[in-house]
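Worked example (supplementary).
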Amino acid sequence: MANATIRDVAKKAGVGVGTVSRVLNQSTAVSAATRSKVQTAIAELDYTPSPIARRLSLGRTMTIGVIAPFFIRPSYVERLRGVDVVLADSEYDFIIYNVETVARRDACFHDISRQERVDGLLIITLPPTDEEVARLKQANIPAVLVDGGHPQISHVMIDDVAGGYQATRHLIDLGHRKIGYISDLLQESPFGFRPVADRYQGYRNALADAGIEFRTEYHRQGELSRREASRLAHELLTLPDPPTAIFAYSDTQAFGVLRAAQNLGLKVPEQLSVIGYDDIEISEFLHLTTIRQHLLESGQRGAELLLAEIIHPGPPQEIILPTDLVLRSTTAPPGS
Amino acid sequence: MANATIRDVAKKAGVGVGTVSRVLNQSTAVSAATRSKVQTAIAELDYTPSPIARRLSLGRTMTIGVIAPFFIRPSYVERLRGVDVVLADSEYDFIIYNVETVARRDACFHDISRQERVDGLLIITLPPTDEEVARLKQANIPAVLVDGGHPQISHVMIDDVAGGYQATRHLIDLGHRKIGYISDLLQESPFGFRPVADRYQGYRNALADAGIEFRTEYHRQGELSRREASRLAHELLTLPDPPTAIFAYSDTQAFGVLRAAQNLGLKVPEQLSVIGYDDIEISEFLHLTTIRQHLLESGQRGAELLLAEIIHPGPPQEIILPTDLVLRSTTAPPGS
DNA sequence: CTGTTAGCGCGTTCAC
DNA sequence: GTGAACGCGCTAACAG
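After joint prediction of all chains, the assembly is encoded as:
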């Protein structure tokens, strides 16, 4: 038994297909009598309109694309979850474009802007180039950025400058003056992630505001892994005048710092304070003081923005989400 | 400038739309001359066929649905990633149905089997009821289960009985005779997860094979959280005759056990051996001995199975993936 | 080999 | 208020 079509319903109800379509779409111009006739016919046939036919006719795909490097890190999943929360209750489906390489990212953008696959695009973390933005505009497909900014596109970002400031400031407030920073590679980040530069900026600002001079040797950059962070921390801690506190760009890296301290026999937080960034799941277990981002919320807000923009296009909006300091047991006054 | 249609291409190339369609679909019955004419026209117009129109005409949606409780635990993300690996290179899109409650799961199944939304369904972890299976069969939509089994549906499962056996056996081989097991709730698992029963069975089998009597008081069940596991472990370890080793249903719970041991001043692995299950990211950092599942591969194999089944439907297949023992530093001979 | 035509299922004028 | 006809862009079957 093939699925019933709108024609079957029309026939069964003794009306035209136009009328059926009208009751389906809440058009008011239908008499109560015929409306109920149609509705019972629909019920009897267990009829559901075909989404694909609907899309073709409407010229809208009713799906929104989410493009992101989801599987690199858990935080993307959390953002995606926020997106899901919003979209699940909408009439939109969403399809995921997982992008783990620059090549694939380009292919993805190219594809999307040419084909009519999505009604809107949610771009997580991967800042589009000006050219890509232009192409999206021209193809007239609404887009919003989550965790990334662009003057011509609506975006919701986390205030990473403030987050970096907050972390550093916390250390300063505890009395630290010698504060190391271990970050992701500032230059070579594959997609040019903004947060890398922003958190660093926050670190610098906090130092400056407190009248603490920035020391080049206290800033180490490396690939985003625990192992590498551990190596970097070891360098920092074996300096002639080592820092008494270390701020790590991510919790993962903070764990590397913890490991290095352990290897050197340094007690945390008595002899070394450590603060991370992200508040991933395991951080609570390890009592890591860290900066929490409102990841789920950022996904939600992004999806809401996009939905709104699909309805009425407007000027680019900007939403900035704050960060929270999560106080646990890896930070304390120096030499306590 | 609206996107070019097949008609525009036909006109520009001076041929009929049928011919254009033929070169698009690799039909061999086209002369080299006209084919190249068409291809240049396509290139000049930057033409891409409309997926939606194609779908309507074909009667296929070219998308496959993936339904799973993704965001509850990281392991789902890993499976999903495997799915993505396979589907990204296919012509299928995939859309995710995130299911976190039984109600939503039912709604999801209902929806999918009625509407023509997907060409195939990948169901992760959520075993469908017989009625749901029947409905899928009737709606003629291919489905495969990942991390779940059903006699009438192709599935790829991880051999959790063997995994539970492997974990327990490892402890026995080290010389332990008093082995506790902390598991998820056997009865009340919301969706009736199979792994819960299977790992328990593996535990029992290993015990039996080694001639060790099962002791009820050594088996504790509780909700899947570190906190609860910690509480349970505390109970176990304060028994008059406490176990010398504990097998935990998940790494998360194993961390709870570790915490309990720490609180009681028990040295791991000298005074207590602990083995987990999953090998989540942080486990390596914490040196947890555990059982690793081939999660990504299970997603891949599932997607491959589904794709194959969409092409030629056949009898249900079964793929069983082994588990690996990952030896680290939380297990040792008793009293070592 | 290739042009033409009839659907795919629905939304939407346009007359009645 | 309501039915009939047309079009969305493409594929497939049928002539030629």
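Two points are worth noting when inspecting this output. Residues 295-311 of chain A form the longest helix (17 residues). The CA atoms of residues 63 and 93 of chain A lie 5 Å apart.
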